[in-house]
């Protein structure tokens, strides 16, 4: 079967700074890939490649076997750690905004039956993320967890096939994080999503993912730290047993530490 995403000998370089080198891997539809690695290893760059916000300097990124175009597409939705939502719009209007842009690119506004249908869909999505009671609330009146629920609803209402999460729970308290773990796992299953999630929490990576991918440099030049980029140094599919066993010691050997543990 054609992988939903395919990285073929991908490099990302900024001038003579190599960030990612020779990344070659496939992601199958339905996988939940946790991406870990030290700060600066290129995890967010990897997500930007999938989003199409960034192009490889060498190699190719394919979506369904076709090279990715630089434009954003409804195939891919993204949630960042913060600031994914519009502060001047209520929850329901935040969720409707993307649908209005897609349905009416010029005016970003829908009318009549189309608007009613968008509103119904947005309301259902807010219910699904547990914000059914907060449709008319502004982000500033919401807790961090509620704002992330809203950001997830906003991303999912466009029915993406691939959901990209960039440290989505990094700013949340441990208890709220656990609630969010449940929510994301349920949405992943119910919506048949493919998820690529960057996290600094290695326990979260093993708990949520069906696969863990660690980026790090294989080679270091002490006189030229930018000479070599990171690549996937650890790539393991998880089953129930490996998930329960948690992060293996060789991750420590691969230089994938330290991670702050926030296992709650
Ligand atoms: N436009 C750019 N120009 C030059 N360097 C860049 C640019 N964008 C990113 N970088 C560099 O690429 C490297 C990887 O950045 P990236 O944000 O992908 O790492 P990360 O693994 O997500 O880090 P963190 O865990 O700290 O968020 C960093 O050294 C960063 O400074």
Could you write a compact summary of the structure shown?
With 264 residues, the protein is an alpha/beta fold. 33% of the residues lie in helices and 24% in strands. It has a six-stranded mixed sheet, sandwiched between helices. The protein has a four-stranded antiparallel sheet with strand order 2-1-4-5, covered by helices on one side.
Architecture overview:
The radius of gyration is 19 Å and the shape is globular. It contains eight helices and ten strands. It is α/β, with parallel strands linked by helices. The protein has helices at residues 43-51, 91-103, 112-128, 144-156, 174-190, 202-208, 240-245, 250-253; strands at residues 5-14, 17-27, 32-36, 58-63, 66-67, 76-79, 162-166, 194-198, 211-217, 230-237. The protein folds into two domains: 1-75 and 160-264, 3-Layer(aba) Sandwich (Rossmann fold), CATH 3.40.50; 86-159, no CATH class. The model is unreliable at 257-264 (pLDDT under 50). Helix 2 crosses helix 3, helix 2 packs parallel to helix 4 and helix 3 crosses helix 4 (144-156). Helix content is 33%, strand content 24%. The strands form two sheets. Strands 6-7-8-3-9-10 form a six-stranded mixed beta sheet, sandwiched between helices. Bound molecules: adenosine-5'-triphosphate. The site of adenosine-5'-triphosphate has 11 residues, from strand 2 and helix 1.
């Amino acid at each position: 079967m054609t992988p939903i995403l395919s990285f073929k000998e991908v490099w990302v370089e900024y001038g003579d700074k190599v960030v990612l080198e020779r990344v070659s891997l496939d992601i199958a539809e339905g996988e939940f890939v946790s991406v870990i690695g030290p700060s600066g290893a290129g995890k967010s760059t990897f997500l930007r490649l999938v989003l199409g916000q960034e192009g490889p300097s060498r190699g190719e990124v394919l979506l369904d076997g076709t090279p990715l175009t630089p434009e954003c597409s409804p195939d891919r939705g993204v949630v960042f750690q913060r600031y994914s939502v519009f502060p001047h719009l209520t929850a329901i209007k935040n969720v409707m905004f993307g649908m209005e842009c897609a349905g009416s690119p010029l005016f970003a506004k829908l009318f009549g039956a189309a608007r009613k249908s968008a509103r119904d869909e947005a309301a259902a999505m807010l219910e699904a993320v547990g914000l059914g009671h907060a449709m008319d609330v502004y982000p500033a009146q919401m807790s961090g967890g509620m704002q992330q629920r809203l950001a997830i609803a906003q991303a999912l209402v466009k029915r993406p096939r691939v959901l990209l999460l960039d440290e989505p729970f990094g700013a949340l308290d441990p208890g709220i994080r656990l609630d969010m773990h449940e929510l994301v796992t349920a949405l992943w299953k119910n919506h048949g999503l493919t998820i690529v999630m960057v996290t600094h929490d290695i326990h979260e990576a093993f708990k949520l993912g069906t696969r863990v991918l660690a980026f790090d440099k294989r080679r270091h030049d002490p006189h030229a730290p930018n000479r070599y980029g990171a690549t996937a140094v650890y790539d393991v599919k998880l089953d129930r047993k490996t998930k329960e066993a948690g992060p293996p010691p060789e991750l420590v050997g691969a230089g994938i530490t330290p991670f702050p543990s926030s296992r709650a």
